[in-house]
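Problem: given the chain below (90 residues), write out its structure.
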Amino acid sequence: MRPDRLDAADRKSVKGFGGAGVLELIEDDAGGTYRAVYTVSYLTAVYVLHVFQKKSKRGRQTSQRDIDLIKERLKRANEIHRMKVTENEP
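Solution.
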């Protein structure tokens, strides 16, 4: 994914994460469809949660395995961010 080639159609909000600011970038090329999922919930950091090649032949649906992995990594990103904020408090 080249940032100079991204437009609004290449990224979308991912549903099912309780408004956690989870976004997805989508890139199609001759080799397949690739996705990068990240969260922008924080003012001081962007956490990349998962990057993968979409293998499903069922339209745009993301596999449950990938969804579960994203949820687990979002939970971990929240923990890491809380620790970093606490470390930087006076």
